[in-house]
DNA sequence: GCCAACGTTGGC
DNA sequence: GCCAACGTTGGC
């Protein structure tokens, strides 16, 4: 299993909206960046991801799971753009802020810090464990 | 609201 | 295929 991070501006698509979709999940549409798309193409069913609120909040708020492999993005006719579906699994008991991530030396190489603008990012297993622990999930998610 | 970073576009 | 112009993202 691999780990990822999905960024969204809460104005456009918030964690609350994601959770409201329940187990059915939701297409992660609107991505128009090759690197982010390529990341989604490599995702497998059951991969886990963090849900991050950019702009407002600037914190990791929840855990999601990939529930549909990459497929054409229904919001465009442009065949270049694909996306996966994800569903909310659980809240982070304590949201982990960007400031906390930046303050943690072991997370210095995390994409959230080094590739600030990438909207779908890979997360290493070590980074996953550290952030889960910081977020109040010492057993992992 | 500003602005730096950076990805994309398009002229040559 | 280079690179300047432009648009967008996202932290502050």
UniProtKB/TrEMBL annotation:
* Highest rank taxon of the organism: Bacteria
Q: Which InterPro entries match?
A: 5hmC_binding, EVE_domain, PUA-like_sf, THYN1-like_EVE
Q: Which residues form the EVE domain?
A: 2-134
| Pfam families listed in its UniProt record | EVE (PF01878)
Please give the Gene3D superfamilies that the UniProt record associates with this protein: ph1033 like domains
In terms of CDD domains, this protein maps to: EVE
Protein's name in the database: Ubiquinol-Cytochrome c reductase, iron-sulfur subunit
